[in-house]
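Second opinion, please. Pick holes in both lines of this record:
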Amino acid sequence: MRITTVVFAFGLFTGFLVYAAEIKPGSVDDPSSFDTTWHKVSYDRRFGALPLNGSVENEHIPWADSYWPMQRGGMAYRWREFQDGSPEASEPASVRKKRFFQVHRYSRAELLRMAPGERSRVVSNLSPLEKYSLLIGDYDYKLVNKFLDSGDAALSSWQGYCHAWAPVSLHYPEPNPATAINADGIEIDFGSSDIKAVMISSYAERVKVSFNSFINGIGRRIGNVFKRIGGSTVQDPDATFVGQRCTKRFLYPTTKIKNGREVFSDYGDPAGIADSYYRQVVESFRNKALALRYFPEGGPAPTDPGFVQKVMANKEDPACRDVNAGAFHIVIGNQLGLNREGFLIDKTRDVEVWNQPVFRYDSQVLEWSGPEAGASPGTARMVRVKTRLFFADDTDYGWAFWFPTLPALFGLQSPFLSEYDRYQKFLIREGDQTEPGNYPEGILDYADYEYKLDLDRDGVILGGEWITFDRPDFLWLFRKTGFTGDYAKLNSIYHPVQLPDDIELRF
């Protein structure tokens, strides 16, 4: 646990708090939590033994997809009908409810009465779970209704199924499109993202129990047991975590120019912001919010006289200081550098949970120094490190649904380029950028982190402190599971993309 000690100055980063950064055995930040019966590891904690870069094998690079917002019914969303972005996020919940929840579901008799051409058109526009329901002969759409019941048109736009997408994309190579014929002779075309969505659905409930217990503070994994607060102890759960979830709001959107007007567009990119500078970011947001009469969702209101102080207090909540920087470096160095195995992070520091599957890192040593105030007991040296962490991105634009992302990376087909060009024009029209990007956004992304590590005389990492504002909230792993039960038929349509052995991934 990190506790406040004193204030000190370091180069440009002045006036920020130093926290006791020791990684205590059995604490929420102990990397040993990643050692389970289903994930046996023994992490090397010596800084010099950990590579400064590492990656999973090409075939294990996770794939991008939508996070399937719950306000549209998750994987019951008919994505082919909505290919121009997501303006519905700003529409009233009553409108979204009609568009996504109160839609006509086709009966077996209706589909069989249709002419082949009409039926093909209708089926191709169905949601992934509707298509899969037809494949397994479920004309009552039980799986569809299950996810519709879990969703709500009034939920926040960020809430979705990234908690299921992130692990399944690490565990299984990206699927190719497939065509199947059900027992009634109905031909069903599954796009790559249709199959991804069903794979995500198969993980959703399994992840939910372990994941929600953790993020909602219901229980905590200690060693190889999961202790439920006020309840039973479960042996070796399916998910394990390093760090803890922040439940406070202190991240707010920034403004952009749209149609000649300044509007709040999306959450600000904290890249490059020193932790000590964040008070100025919050003050700037408050001033703009008051001028534009903008009231964010959750957290203190900008009209509150104590807004800045309350936001900063939220940021300094013990659970919101996020995973220990030393634990973070131990995990990336062992998981990716030595074992070439990915893991999962909640990328967003505050109350929102944005899960991402991590597959690569590149670190560089910036500076060595002696022990400083607040360093872990036994620290002999400190090293300042900058790390770029790569992960698959979750997106919400049409082109990402159409094509497997890895073939798109290694050989951009003309249909992909056409769809990507339309996506770029959408971004320009919406005011998010002024010219088309040179790299296919929404496939892979990265974050830059800077931190200090506390080392003992043998170079063992004792703990660490963050310098950048940006950092993961927590790290986690989930046990790989197969497609069984309601999802057993997935095995007949899941065909992974095959990559040539000599392909070199370029970033």
User: Anything to note?
Assistant: The two ends are 36 Å apart (CA to CA). Residues 80 and 125 are 6 Å apart (CA to CA).
